Amino acid sequence: MPVPLRCPNPRCRYHAHPGRRWRIDYGFYHTRAHGRVRRYRCRGCRRTCSTQTESLHYFAKRRLPLEAVWEALLSGASQRDIGRRYGFSPMAVQHAVQRLGRQAMAAQLELSGSFRPVSGVVFDGLRSFVTAQDYPCDITTVVEPGGETILTLEHTVFRRGGRMSPGQRARVEEKLAVWRPKAGTMSGDISRVVGELWAYLRPPEADDGVFAATIDTDEHRLYGPALSRDPIAGHFRRAGLLQHIRTPGSAPRTRANRLFAVNYVDRLLRHRLREHTRETIAGGRHASLQMHRAWCFAWDHNSRRAWRVRKPKRGVHAAQAAADEVAVRRLTGPFFRRRIRPVHAPVVPETLRRVWMCELPTPPVRWRRGQRGTSVRVPAYAVADLAEACQQAA
Ligand SMILES: [Zn+2]
After folding, report:
1. Cα–chain center distance at 368
2. pLDDT tens track for 104-146
3. Residues 151, 116: contact at Cβ < 8 Å?
4. Cα 53 to middle of ligand 1, angstroms
């Protein structure tokens, strides 16, 4: 169990600078979930804390094998599969996955503090659905092409199009009467993603009028206008420092394709998470929780998977271009034990904040019964964790 490294009281001098001797042993207490827990008291403010305070299991009513849940989730097991395997209720598994998703986001935030600026990004929307095929969604993914590092994820539900039978059309209309994505959501979401690019993407010094930074996308009709609206993109473009390259979606999906990195991530996402597998019957039921799982996938991909299975000695994806191996290892070592405090993030991106706070618009599951949406609770300590990250970033 992780010994606390600092006083939990944000107003105490031992919170930011704990030093060596800030706490004294203060006995034990007993809990049903965690057994005997060692308690400590701060020498400064006398506040007590314990080996639970910074634990990834903080406030859990049951202690789930989080690493095993992680591995199962990313091997294509549905949450119900995991529950059946370990004898936990679906709700207990959902809470564990939410916990892991926040830890993955915290790790990504913390790692972003040691990201090196990149000179190119590739982005694309990965098509999936939430609650039912009648509510398709795009998971817009920004990838650094050199290391295939996932930088940003955004979730957008949109209206189902394409060919439908009269029966399907009637059902979709009935559903849309209960809940429909707001007009302009997609273009707003893409603008948000573009606005956040500059945290990573920086054109190096231009030489000989060569475009220094590139943004690669497919021919999606909203990408061009979103880039045109963005003031920073406009600034770089006028200075001849930024180029937007469009590759048709029909181009062969080979290594030579400029969108290779994002196509590769797309394939892995479908491969690893059950809800994105084609024809799945275990679809996501809540947009924000779907994105908690997507962040589990992203962190696993970035920091725990070898860059190319056949050449594993080159290290993990995130270490290739965006960060260094030491920074990654500092986060992966205690990942399943200690809650990561993302206090070195230069910014807390809005895309990530909305997922953490479970604020993504999501269609109802039981729409026939007039349910208008499903809400997910975010525990107070998790709200406080993110607030601290935002405060440090500001
Ligand atoms: Zn204190």
Report:
1. 31
2. 999 999 999 888 888 899 999 999 999 888 999 999 999 999 8
3. no
4. 13
Rounded CA gap, 204 and 340, in Å? 32
Rg of the chain, C-alpha, whole Å: 22
What are the tokens at 22? 């800030």
343 Cα to the center of ligand 1, angstroms? 18
- How far apart are the CA of 18 and the centre of ligand 1, in A? 9
Q: How far is the CA of 79 from the centre of ligand 1 (A)?
A: 39
Distance (Å) from CA 43 to ligand 1 centroid = 6
Q: How far is CA 38 from the centre of its chain?
A: 33
- Alpha-carbon distance values, 109 to 6, 124, 223, 388 (Å): 20, 21, 25, 12
Query: Considering only 281-285, 310-314, 384-388, which range has the smallest mean pLDDT?
Result: 310-314
Confidence class for position 369, pLDDT limits 50, 70, 90: confident
Helix (H) or strand (E) holding 213: strand 213-217
Q: How far is the CA of 148 from the centre of ligand 1 (A)?
A: 42
- CA–centroid distance, residue 3 to ligand 1 (Å): 15
Kindly give the distance from the C-alpha atom of residue 13 to the centroid of ligand 1, in angstroms, as a whole number.
Answer: 7
- 35-42/48-50 β-pairing: antiparallel
Among 257, 292, 275, smallest CA distance to 70 is for: 292
**CA-to-CA dists, residue 182 to 157, 186, 276, 361, angstroms:** 9, 9, 24, 9
Domain ranges of the chain: 1-55, 56-393
Ligand 1 centroid – CA 34 distance (Å): 24
The model carries a pTM of 0.94
Could you tell me the distance, in angstroms and rounded to a whole number, from the CA of residue 47 to the centre of ligand 1?
A: 6
